[in-house]
Design a protein that fits this description.
About 45% of the residues lie in helices and about 10% in strands. It is α/β, with parallel strands linked by helices and about 375 residues long. It has an eight-stranded parallel beta sheet. Strands 5-7 form a two-stranded antiparallel sheet. It is globular.
Length: about 375
């Protein structure tokens, strides 16, 4: 029942199951896996896709011959396993050159190099079949506002995105961009810190139709926000081009826990939203196994991400079919049609009629809603007693 299938579109990044367990206070605890090994590991756990940063696959200092051999081996592993590459991105945060940002760097040479690196990485992604290209500005921020003018930073980001959209159009690539927000870490503050910020920014671009968002559970939870609401806004706007699934304690550093490991109720409503509205993109797990994990436990981590999603998908179907829950929802949303004349688009006649209508304000204030009962039924469903 919880066996992954290609139509579920579960994917992982090379950097996720390939994490060696390093953190700011500790050295690696697991050996590094090659991209080929990671592809086979993902096939073993039933994943559909593998995603990568350019330098996850090809070291930044690789020679052209080394690059070609790595890509050849990677393609062979993909063909052997049937794993696809739906998304790619550029690492514009690890190398010391990006210590003060990439597209927002105060150094024009760094900004130019960031475009140079990204164009080459886009070419690589297209060569491997990607349809979505993600931008996460991990260094696009500041520790002190004395260092950068935030208005200039926004303008520089827009100039870079417009340039890269034009590059994709000029090359004839069938590619969409997805922007990923994060409030902080590794910078003290990161520009365009939330999914809402990104949606507003996209509207100012030369080609907004090419650009959507890639919201991540952990990044919105770091800011104490409701991730499901952020995803709903992106879905309603037609801008949910990709999604990063993991888990996170609210207000903490970026933990990247296994999907559903911490906030199972939030994970449930997220899965329900995606399934109810027919989201058709990748379900990408941007998460890491605990630092305590060995390779077997890394496989358990990846399997766990997939199983939790599928279990919650099944729970969402149960919620939608539960007679008592649906009866409560029908009661909550009941509409006798008496106010239909006031609905829809504005007209002067409609406004005048609505202004003249008499409402029983006291009765409106006395009506309770059975949200406690509804929420308890949801909890009982998740706990497996319904």
């Amino acid at each position: 029942m919880y066996t992954p299938k290609p139509e579920h579109k579960f994917s992982f990044g090379l950097w996720t199951v390939g994490s060696v367990g390093r953190d700011p206070f500790g050295e690696p605890v697991r050996r590094a896996l090659s991209p080929v090994e990671i592809v086979h590991l993902l096939a073993e756990v039933g994943a559909w896709g593998v995603n990568f940063h350019d330098n996850d696959l090809i070291p930044i200092d690789a020679t052209p011959a080394e690059r070609d051999q790595i890509v050849h081996n990677f393609k062979y592993a993909l063909a052997e396993t049937g794993i696809v590459v739906p998304m790619a991105t550029t690492n514009l945060f690890s190398d010391p050159a990006f210590r003060d940002g990439a597209f927002t760097s105060n150094d024009p040479r760094v900004r130019a190099y960031a475009l140079h690196k990204t164009m080459h990485a886009i070419d690589l992604g297209v060569e491997l079949g990607v349809g979505v290209y993600v931008f996460w500005g991990g260094r696009e921020g500041a520790e002190t506002d004395a260092a950068k003018d935030p208005v200039t930073a926004i303008k520089r980001t827009r100039e870079a995105m417009n340039f890269l959209c034009a590059y994709v159009i000029d090359k004839g690539y069938n590619l969409k961009f997805a922007l990923e927000a994060k409030p902080n870490e590794p910078r003290g503050d990161i520009y365009n810190a939330t999914t809402g910020n990104m949606l507003a920014f996209i509207a100012t671009l030369d080609h907004p139709e090419m650009v959507g968002v890639n919201p991540e559970v952990a990044h919105e939870h770091m800011a104490g926000l409701n991730f499901t609401h952020a995803v709903a806004q992106a879905l309603e706007a037609g801008k949910l081009f990709h999604i990063d699934l993991n888990d996170q304690a609210f207000g903490r550093y970026d933990q990247d826990f296994r999907f559903g490991a911490h906030n199972i109720k939030s994970a449930f409503f997220l899965v329900k939203l995606l399934e109810d509205y027919g989201y058709g993109g990748s379900r990408h797990f941007d998460a890491h196994a605990y630092r305590t994990a060995d390779l077997d436990d890394v496989k358990a981590f990846a399997t766990g991400c997939i199983r939790t999603y599928l279990i919650l998908k099944d729970k969402a179907a149960q919620f939608n079919a539960d007679p008592e829950i649906q009866a409560l929802l029908a009661e909550i949303t009941a509409d006798d049609g008496s106010l239909d004349g006031f609905k829809g688009a504005y007209s002067p006649q409609k406004a005048a009629a609505l202004k003249g209508h008499t409402f029983d304000r006291v009765a409106l204030g006395q009506r309770g809603q059975p949200y406690e009962r509804l929420d308890q039924l949801t909890v009982e469903l998740l706990l497996g007693v319904r």
